[in-house]
Amino acid sequence: MFPIPIVVQPFLQHSILKNKMLKMLELEKGKQLDTMGEQITKTDWTIDSEREYVNTILPHIQSNVEPLFKRMNYLKFKFGSTWFQQYEKEDFHSWHRHPDTDWGLVYYLELPLDGPVTEFRNPLDSNETILPKVKEGDFVLFPALLEHRSSENNSKARKTVIVTNFKTF
User: Fold this and answer.
1) Per residue in 91-110, pLDDT tens?
2) Is the dihedral of CA 116, 117, 118, 122 positive or negative?
3) Does residue 142 have a pLDDT over 90?
4) For the chain, how far is it from start to end, CA to CA, in angstroms?
5) By residue range, what is the domain housing residue 15?
6) What is the predicted pLDDT for the residue at 9?
7) Domain containing 78 — which CATH number?
8) 26, 43, 72, 133: which has the highest count of C-beta atoms within 10 A?
9) Paired strand residues for 163
10) Is residue 96 part of a domain?
């Protein structure tokens, strides 16, 4: 058996984009989510309107993932939904999957040293989880069949991620 292909890499333009993206996200209309499965301070996941930061970040995401998809023998890929989430102290997002997609990407725009990273659950053994070694400025690319979550943020600092989905061909 071969390992589940969870890819962790530095987001190549992070040092150039971080402050610009955070300023853009401050201006974005976002909502707070507070349900049994999630408590997120600010997200635009449910907002369908045109968003400036998405147009800014997608070419950079493309340049980061294109070589990976080529290496995996995909001839092309298509972007699905893109959104951001900001987790303040005690925020979380419980186990979930992204429907109607092949791959997911989480870009850690802000990640405190003591902040929670995305945790993945083995689809054949739900007691087995994987915590990739990521830091601020990294991204994780993963097969969408994997359940994943962001456990409670026990840090005093905010965690900000930009997430996007892909269909591959």
Assistant:
1) 999 999 999 999 999 999 99
2) negative
3) yes
4) 24
5) 7-168
6) 98
7) 2.60.120.620
8) 43
9) 83, 106
10) yes
Does 115 fall in a domain?
yes
DSSP lists the bridge partners of residue 164 as 82, 105
72 is written with which tokens?
A: 């995996």
* pLDDT tens profile 15-64: 999 999 999 999 999 999 999 999 999 999 988 888 999 999 999 999 99
**CA-to-CA distance for 8 and 144, rounded, in angstroms?**
15
Domain total in the chain: 1
Q: Is residue 2 part of a domain?
A: no
Per-residue pLDDT for 1 more than 90? no
| Strand ranges, E, within the chain | 7-10, 31-34, 38-43, 77-87, 92-96, 103-110, 118-122, 125-130, 138-143, 147-150, 159-168
The type of residue at 1 is M
pTM tops 0.85: yes
Rounded to an integer, what distance in angstroms lies between the CA atom of residue 5 and that of residue 70? Answer: 14
Tokens of 99: 């429907």
With a cut of 80, say whether residue 72 has pLDDT above it.
yes
Judge whether 156 lies within some domain.
Answer: yes
